[in-house]
Amino acid sequence: MRPVLGIESSCDETAAAVLDEAGRVLAESVLSQESDHAPYGGVVPEIAARAHLAFLPEQVRRVMAAAGLGFAELGGVAASGGPGLIGGLIVGSQFAKGIAIAHRLPYVAVNHLEAHALTARLPGLVEGGVAFPYLLLLVSGGHCQCVAVEGVGRHARLGTTLDDAAGEAFDKVAKLLGLGWPGGPALERLAADGDAARFPFPRPLLGRAGCDFSFSGLKTAVAQEVARHGAGALAVRMAADIAAGFQCAVAEVLADRATHAMAMMRERAAGAQVLVVAGGVAANGAVRAALAAAAGAAGFALVAPPVRLCTDNAVMVAWAGIERLRLGLADGLDFAPRPRWPLDAVPGAPRRLAEAPA
Ligand code: KG4
Ligand code: ZN
After folding, report:
1. N or C: which end of the chain has fewer CB within 10 A?
2. What is the C-alpha to C-alpha distance for residues 287 and 294, in angstroms, rounded to an integer?
């Protein structure tokens, strides 16, 4: 197979990448729109869509030039087709389809969650590669779920959040502490100097059966603690202790939920032995450490891709495209982007490669 172009535009990163068949990254570029959205304290869908429209052509031109390839030399074009913000999904999908039509290439509509899930299989990431089946813990700003990854297009969601995603909880608590958006990295820096034991915040669902998550009660407890100290900025010491207490509670809950998920995974597949963590929250050191300990205790190996591959990027989209194209899984040009697209609804059965347009 010739190299594949991947496009990511489902949220607030405008990204493009070219990978060869073996999964080697020939070129990649991620443009974060963070500074466009920061004044509003979160992603503004209309601003995101317009930014994708403005910057995607240049991103694609840049990676194609860096890879030294013309479009006609590609083996396919893959773009995130959902879930995500519909404006950005339309921009990325239509752009990919345009290239596919003009150069008679197969087009792949990649499920963004499957792209996160398959990243661990990128050659070179883990010695010997990660084989199916494995357990995925996806912890990002928009998603918090445990997934049994049993093959390309073969996924079962074991548990999910009942309210906020883990990253969303980090962002909301960071806001309470006056840290700006996105708050996860700033909160982690602040927590480094804090005393996690000073505020024993609740651990929602800890020890409960299954592997669902809940963060709204924890967020409320933090809000009440902040309010107790009156209006205005908190003393730095106080803020650091609250941040550390919150982060410790999240890490403990994630480790507990992952432990339950690993047991559920073993019931499905006795040989399962890998826990993959992905999403922006996987960048958090305390979370990684807690998950590594939980995995070790359950006899699983923790695979945490490097942070740039855990957060949104186009390498994972191109790689998911390659995995699908290898199985003959391409999509028709009538594919409609899907703002909601659960992983267990991703097609996996071999289908005919889409006809190249006449
Ligand atoms: O996967 P991601 O880049 O984007 C999507 O949500 O799809 O994840 C972003 C989320 C944000 O909520 C951000 O605050 C959180 O990941 N995050 C972190 C850290 N870095 C990013 N949360 C905790 N600690 C971090 N170091
Ligand atoms: Zn994502």
Report:
1. C
2. 11
Q: Using the mean position of ligand 2's atoms as its centre, give its distance from the Cα of residue 290 in Å.
A: 22
∠ CA 288-114-116, nearest 5°, is: 30
How far apart, in whole angstroms, are the C-alpha atoms of residue 83 and residue 286?
A: 28
Nearest ligand for residue 286 CA? 1
Tokens of 194: 């804090």
Query: pLDDT of 194-246, one tens digit each?
Result: 999 999 999 999 999 999 999 999 999 999 999 999 777 889 999 999 999 99
pTM (global) more than 0.85: yes
Instruction: Kindly identify the ligand whose nearest atom is closest to the C-alpha of 114.
Output: 2
**8 Cβ closer than 6 Å to some ligand 1 atom:** no
Tell me the pLDDT tens digit for each residue of 29-44.
Answer: 999 999 999 999 889 9
Which own/partner contact pairs does 331-334 have at CB distance under 8 Å and 24+ positions apart?
331/81, 331/107, 331/108, 331/109, 332/107, 333/97, 333/100, 333/101, 333/107, 333/357
Residue whose pair of structure tokens reads 């309210």 in the numeric block: 163
Alpha carbon distance 305, 157 (integer Å): 21
| DSSP-derived pairing of the beta strands 144-151 and 154-160 | antiparallel
Q: How far is CA 53 from CA 80, 112, 304, 312, 324, in A?
A: 15, 19, 32, 18, 26
Q: Which residue bears the tokens 């031109």? A: 61
119 pocket-lining for ligand 1 (C-beta < 6 Å)? no
Backbone angles phi, psi at 231, to 5 degrees: -75, 165
Q: SS3 of 62, please? A: helix
